[in-house]
Amino acid sequence: MIADERSEHRRRIALWLILAVLTLVLVVLAGHYLEPSPPKKIVLAAGQVGGGYYTFGREYQKRLERLGLRVEVEETTGSVDNLHRLVDGRADVAFVQGGTAPLVPDPGETLRGLAALYVEPLWVFYRGRLASESLAALRGRRISMGPRESGTEAITKTLLAEHGFDLGSPLLVNLTTREAYRQLLDGELGAAFLVTSYRDPAVVNLLLQPDVRLLSFPRDVVYTRKYHYLTAIKLNQGLLDLKDDIPRKDKTLLAPTAMLVARADLHPWVVEQILKVARAIHSPGSLLDPPLRFPSLEGVDLPVHETAETFLTSGESFLSSLLPYWALRRASQLRLLILPLLAVWLPFMRVLPVISMWRAGRWMKQYYASLNRVEGVLARAESPVELRVGLQTLEKLRSDVDSALRTLSGQRLRDASHCRLQLSLLQHQSLERLRRVEGDAGDPGR
Question: I want to staple 299 with a disulfide (CB 3.0 to 4.6 A). Which of 65, 180, 250, 257 is the partner?
Fold first, then answer.
């Protein structure tokens, strides 16, 4: 009996170990093949400190961290630098100027557009007077094209090359917005190209300077048809400041679109959190953008992220609208555990009663076979020794039945109770017979 119990215990341990190993294997496979859990932190490539991209980056950081997503905002030189960081995996999402994506190799392989956010004017400030309202009139002046690998440099080179400038000329220099602002005021620069928001303090201050002028683009239709990523903006007199009458004349500017660009493998739930913040920040519009125009897919010149397209056309997913980001992360992590558990333990729990019934039936057959053998032995026994051996076997069977009564249930419990009754009856009959045989053996006269 003890050996049987030990064997049964070993079988149970082996079964639980098999189930545990199978569950662990499925958890590992689920983690490998299922969509990974959303990250706790992302890296946002912004721009120069004090510039529009960096300012917006800080606002995104603040709002996303309220939702439970940590954001590391990185200072960069601008759009092209941001694109390289995305391609190299050093950033997850970035602000990028429209028209700059072709400056990195195979952007469509690793990058996806999330949304256009706002139009970003090209401001061309110059000192003195020009012979005509044209970029060609800037020839011979020292010109700042913006920082290297910035969107400003990219668009400046494109437009100057279109007007026949020698891009290798030492008169074309790469300066940050702050450096260009200072040198323009000091007279060290003849002109500066800036792609930035109208809120940029450098733009506002330059518009107030009496000896610094803003170039207008009267042939805006030609530019926008030739370069589809450019939009014409009418900057009406006094639009930026009615009191100081800024600008003092109507101006026509060219503006690429500022976009959010991400790596193609950015988690869909992160995309939704970013676009929720983008909608809150940019949908009210501005002096240059009408309300509800942005964020938009219009103006995105990269393949659009599938989640972004769904979000901007149909709205956010049910789970994203129902749960905060931290809860989405927990739900995703639990999924990696719950699915394997369901795959292993749910079928096992359904099969377990069947196995228990089969084992109980098998035990009943073995018990009745043993009982029949003992009953036959007792029926053939003629001496007290043979009867005592049979009674000892009955006692072992009785112990087995008592153990079974603690584990069985339902119909099998009733069957085991009936077995115990039969065993008790046979035991009682055998004891009576043993007393009679021993009495006959002790009384020689009978």
Answer: 257
- Rg, C-alpha atoms of the chain: 42
Domain count, the chain: 1
CB contact at 8 A, 111 and 101: yes
What is the pTM assigned to this prediction?
0.65
β-strands 191-195, 122-127 pairing: antiparallel
How far is Cα 124 from Cα 215, in angstroms, rounded to an integer?
Answer: 5
- Cα 150 from Cα 144, distance rounded (Å): 12
Angle (CA) 389-394-398 rounded to 5° is: 150
192 - beta bridge partners? 125, 144
User: Domain range holding 375?
Assistant: 2-24+335-440
- CATH number of the domain within which 416 lies: 1.20.58
Q: Give the model confidence (pLDDT) of 85-144 as tens digits.
A: 999 999 999 999 988 988 888 888 899 999 999 999 999 999 988 888 899 999 999 999
For 406-437, the pLDDT digits (tens) are 665 555 566 667 777 777 777 777 777 777 77
